[in-house]
Known about the structure:
Layout: E1 24-31, E2 34-41, E3 50-54, H1 61-69, H2 75-78, E4 83-87, H3 107-121, E5 126-131, H4 133-144, E6 149-155, H5 164-176, H6 179-187, H7 190-195, H8 198-208, H9 213-224, E7 243-247, H10 265-268, H11 270-283, H12 294-303, E8 304-310, E9 313-318, E10 321-323, E11 326-330, E12 336-340
Parallel strand pairs: 3-4, 3-5, 5-6, 6-7, 7-12
Antiparallel strand pairs: 1-2, 2-4, 8-9, 10-11, 11-12
The chain binds benzoic acid.
Amino acid sequence: MAELQEVQITEEKPLLPGQTPEAAKTHSVETPYGSVTFTVYGTPKPKRPAILTYHDVGLNYKSCFQPLFQFEDMQEIIQNFVRVHVDAPGMEEGAPVFPLGYQYPSLDQLADMIPCVLQYLNFSTIIGVGVGAGAYILARYALNHPDTVEGLVLINIDPNAKGWMDWAAHKLTGLTSSIPEMILGHLFSQEELSGNSELIQKYRNIITHAPNLDNIELYWNSYNNRRDLNFERGGDITLKCPVMLVVGDQAPHEDAVMADSGGQPQLTQPGKLTEAFKYFLQGMGYMASSCMTRLSRSRTASLTSAASVDGNRSRSRTLSQSSESGTLSSGPPGHTMEVSC
Ligand code: BEZ
């Protein structure tokens, strides 16, 4: 039987007032499918994976992840990891519009660009955090390169290709709606959109006036042409790493309303997501309980149990539990944590 190994954790102190945050460095690399831009925050930490993010359609890494990664309680987590934020081609700030007839990569090809990023940075493993199209891309990457993915946080993933009915509905909507409205309908619920909160106004403004709207439409088309990821519980095609599945309870396709978040929980509920992420990392052996808030610590004691050993890292099993972080329910043993927020 494989032996349980203690993971050495060196906790770093949170930033003191007046201390400057870590610098970001943006790079571009050439890949067989064109160039890809990514931004690195922090420095590599020995024996730790990088956190690698992939954003949804209509957004870039900043508009998708800044509210989460700059959330106060998130700092104690991310300071222990280097972060790589990938921008889908043509989505980076200041990206020129692709020439007419440019063949935008499929989601599978976008996933195939990730090894070039990791090779360039000389990073061997990641914990992926993806939203919508970005979640699909990271899941595809994990299926193709299971040995390099230690964990996945998949927010609002739709693993299936559009069915015949979805296509008909999509075509009908396209007759009466603009591309920005269709993308907003993908990101947010109708209730949120008609509520027209400050957040919705902000994102409607960003997308409607995006100078790279033509590029965004290409990413949108690739998303709509995705194929099935084909994973089945207990089937041959499965994710081999621990997965935290997150569904915003107002996500456009989520019927079961359970808590009080929106279609984009990383924007509307960064606190809940941060706490769930802490549990997830702790289950993977990366967060000492001393690093967690007192409340989280006491809850985690009853939430997580070291269940299976895979390779040399202990994996956790998240038991069915309702908490302020939303509802957590059990998935396949040792691997899945489901969060609704
Ligand atoms: C980060 O610290 O990883 C981060 C900062 C700003 C935007 C997105 C991510």
